[in-house]
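Lecture 7 notes: from sequence to structure.
We start with the chain below.
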Amino acid sequence: MISFLQVEGLTKSFGDLELYDDLKFGIDQGQKVAIVAKNGAGKTTLLNILAGVDSADKGSIVFRKDIKISFLAQEPILDKKNTIIEEVYASSKDILTAINDYHKAIESGDNATIEKSMAVMDHLNAWDFETKANQILSRLKIYDVNQKISELSGGQQKRVAMASVILKNPDLLILDEPTNHLDLDMIEWLEEYLHSSNCTLLMVTHDRYFLDRVCNLILEIDDKQIYTYKGNYSYFLEKRAERLEIARLGAEKARNLMRTEQEWMRRMPKARGTKAKYRVDQFHELKKEASYRKVEKSVNINVQQSRLGKKILEISELSKSFGDKVILKDFSYKFSRFEKVGIIGDNGTGKSTFVNLITGNLESDGGVVDVGQTIKFGYYNQKGLDFNPKDKVIDVVREVAEVVTLSDGTEMSVTQFLNYFLFPPDTHHAYVEKLSGGEKRRLYLLTVLMQNPNFLILDEPTNDLDIMTLNVLEEYLEVFGGCVIIVSHDRFFMDKVVDHLFVFNGDGDVKDFPGNYTQYRDYVEVKEEERKREEAKSKVPKETKKPTGNRQRKLTFKEKKELEELEIDIERMEKRKKELEEALASGNLSSEELVEQSKEYQQLEEELDEKSMRWLELSEI
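Predicted structure tokens for the same chain:
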């Protein structure tokens, strides 16, 4: 295997907080690697160090000479003055110049200039680059390439950055939370793209299906050390459990041995200096091993919820539009007790708007949202709580409540509750600005749950939360005694929690599907296969019955004329088909022309098939 990256003795601290101590690992060509760890363990920091955005306190990082590296940051920084196409081509300005010169040459009609620009396009292999750029941008649902970066939302900017790093065609691709801000279709496309790509990959993601299907090596950061698992996410879970069990058994054995050694060490203090040095050293090593008490700390969500009455939430003829864009049109639904609904759909179809209408944060154009008297919403929104970065963690929680009641009636002080949510005492008085992105999201989740809601609305709850917290949140939601609405692009999360889906198809069309996300995808695939079969059947000509007896039917005057016209049309269409084939194979078409002529070719083939079949039918009479 060819080594692409070798890390030795990497150490990093922020003040008193030490993230890792003496990390050692390597990545070989072709490996697809994921970093897994709890929030605050330094996943993003490690990627930033490897990408040269941050620096380590000590240690060496050695990349293979001359390899090309692309880095997608969790919050990418783009040039706001650029258009989308300028940003995407920023690292390939010579190609962008060549493409622009070629289009200008075509407009000018000067053959000499056209030939010169075509030669430059050939030299830079710009034809393929332009086609690939358009394909990737369209798959990421970015269509207006002349739009300014400054006009885009944060999610759109992340997608532009994604297209840019992929188009650099790197040897090593480093991605920090690549699935954030992507809808489900985009995630599945990216998953397939990276799975089939030859590039070496290093990424941080919370998407467990993505991890399972793309990665073949997992690096886990735990207790400031790194552990390597040569397999996908499922393999990692199995081997991690084995590692922790072996460590536990080893510590137990060491404690038993240490009792004997302690007796030996206590004998005759005067003789201590004459004891074998190796045995004294061995005792101290044994003591260190015996002191290992790895407790798998995890968030234990067990908060009391408000009583749920008979009437939950009734929506009647709800409508909402923004200008010409219809989000909801006469939508009605009556929620039942303990119902868990997932909401899916492309970005911009109105998922977040819908939950804002329910919670009263947005006014509808028409219809009624009737909320039961006992309903207490807990709304975890996509933007998160707007914390004051100078506030202390303990003060943020105290603004909500001084005491938290658990489901068994036990009361906890806010300091105890913070410990419960994996915020140890030394972080209680830390400033919010010192927390990692994932820790801030966990703190926000804590403030939502401690209000004892009985109707949870979670808008993209999985973004930035670590996998361990997600597992516990899923378990909590499965047994939650209230209602839940979840807007999420995390397929694993949806599969595990929801009973049915609201599918937002755009233009106000919302369908209720009785099942989880995987069941919905299976349903869509079956329907698509059925549609293709029906389409294929409709193209097969119906058998014409041959006349029986001695009489042979002759063509009518109208049929003779139709046959003559068909012969002329088929000849003309065959000629045009040949012209299109030559043009498409020439490599001289712009991306717009390529798309346009490909559509014409497909349509022409279909018409030609129909006319040929009709000609055969008439010629046999």
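Points to note: The two ends are 69 Å apart (CA to CA). The longest strand covers residues 3-14.
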